[in-house]
Amino acid sequence: MGYPARWDRLREEMAREGVELLALVPGANLFYLTGLHFHRMERPIVALLPREGEPALILPAFEVEKAQRAPIPWRLFPYTDTEGPASAFHTAAAALGGRGRPIAVEALGMRVLEWSLLAHVFSLSEPIASEPLLARLRMVKGPEEIAAIRRAIAAAEEALQRWLPEVRPGMTEREATRRLIQACFAAGADALAFEPIVVAGPNAALPHATPSDRPIGPGELMIVDFGAVVDGYASDLTRTFVLGEPDPEAARIYAVVREANAAGRAAVRPGIPAEAVDQAARAVIEDAGYGPYFPHRTGHGLGLEVHEPPYLVAGDTTPLQTGMVFTVEPGIYLSGKGGIRIEDVVVVTENGGESLTAFPRELRSI
After folding, report:
1. What pLDDT is attached to residue 341?
2. pLDDT at position 127, please?
3. 347: nearest Cα among 324, 364, 366, 316
4. I want to staple 104 with a disulfide (CB 3.0 to 4.6 A). Which of 111, 128, 155, 350 is the partner?
5. Mean pLDDT for the chain overall
6. How far apart are CA 1 and CA 145, in angstroms?
7. Residue ranges of the chain with per-residue pLDDT less than 70
8. Burial status of residue 317 (CB atoms within 10 A of its CB: 0-12, 13-18, 19 or more)
């Protein structure tokens, strides 16, 4: 889908929500609608998108040439470091209709810096969250987006294949992580989707542990959670390995998590609520007696951001639609012992769900 079509859909959603003006800051939503990537810094950059008329972009003067390359008929309001941004915000607000005009903003992305400037020039009292509107634009991926996610997954899976032969007992989690990062770029990643998680033993009992200087010990379970970015889109892959031979309990728990992962993926089909995938995966773990040890949701949407709607969790009743892409990642974590997580990326198809990740799910000893 090209940018003009995305803008048409944006205006339709704005009309549906009664939103006259949308404010975006650098990030995934601005990139999705314009193809522009700006660094978030102390100099504010704000795009003001009216439901009717030309959009405005407030930005540092040295970013003007980049903005002019976008396929958008911007009205640009630049400022210099000497001037500061306040005057540009006032001028842009006047051009767009002035004070008292309600604005929808990125509640999860906009800083106090941008909000305070907007609130002053538009006389705003409280923000209107734009996340529901923007989620409806981005949840269903087009063919070109799914193709980019496939490329990001291919880079991650190749990186994992390159990296595994390098891991050995006694290597620290940080050293293993450093080598995984190198393998990602060697496999063609443009960037990392997030800071990789490579943790073993007791540290693997923490779902979002930070790699440490702790050596990886023989017989320990090791969780590897990472992703690559290719052409702006992310992958997210988790596998659990064992250094040597697993003890009977670890092997038993691994089998439960693998079954839960399969149940979650098998449940995917158009029309069911997102929470139904969570229910399918969680039921397997609960039936095995490990329900309290699965503390997080089963998955999350994936695309320009690693975490985006829909969310596979109780309470998210978003109907699944063909083209939605999300993770399925059940896990079991035993404090002081270790943890197991198996994560795949799934796209909703007309007939069910297709796993875009293909890395083997059997428990692998390294």
Report:
1. 98
2. 84
3. 324
4. 128
5. 96
6. 9
7. none
8. exposed
The CATH number of 139-365 is 3.90.230.10
- pLDDT at site 150: 98
Name the burial class of residue 208, with classes exposed (0-12), middle (13-18) and buried (19+) by CB atoms within 10 angstroms of its CB: exposed
pLDDT at 249: 93
Calpha distance 166→299 (Å, rounded): 29
Residue in the block written with tokens 């803008």? 7
Longest C-alpha distance within the chain, in Å? 70
Task: Please give the torsion angle defined by the CA atoms of residues 55, 57, 58 and 60, in that order, rounded to the nearest 10 degrees.
Answer: -160
Q: Where are the domains of the chain?
A: 3-137, 139-365
Burial class (CB in 10 A: 0-12, 13-18, 19+), 211: buried
CA–CA dist 301, 78 (Å, integer): 35
Cα–Cα distance measured from residue 157 to residue 155, given in angstroms and rounded to the nearest whole number: 6
Q: Which two tokens stand for residue 194?
A: 């997030």
Q: How far apart are CA 3 and CA 11, in angstroms?
A: 12
pLDDT of the residue at 83: 96
- For the chain, the straight-line distance linking the first and the last C-alpha, in angstroms and rounded, comes to 43
- Residue 135 has phi, psi (to 5 degrees) of -60, -40
**Does this model's pTM top 0.85?**
yes
- Residue type at 237 in one-letter notation: L
142 contact partners, CB below 8 Å, separation of at least 6: 1, 323
In the numeric block, which tokens belong to residue 293? 């040890």
Integer CA distances (angstroms), 90 to 67, 77, 93, 121, in order? 20, 10, 5, 6
| Closest to 330 measured CA to CA, from 271, 357, 290 | 290
Using CA atoms, how far apart are residues 143 and 220, in angstroms rounded to an integer? 41
Q: Tell me whether residue 11 is exposed, middle or buried, using C-beta atoms within 10 angstroms of its C-beta: 0 to 12, 13 to 18, 19 or more.
A: middle
* Domain made up of 3-137: CATH architecture: 3-Layer(aba) Sandwich (3.40)
Written in H, E and C, the secondary structure of 195-242 is CCEEEEHHHHHCCCCCCCCCECCCCCEEEEEECEEECCEECCEEEEEE
Residue-level pLDDT at 70: 86
Report the candidate in 188, 176, 263 with the shortest Cα–Cα distance to residue 225: 176
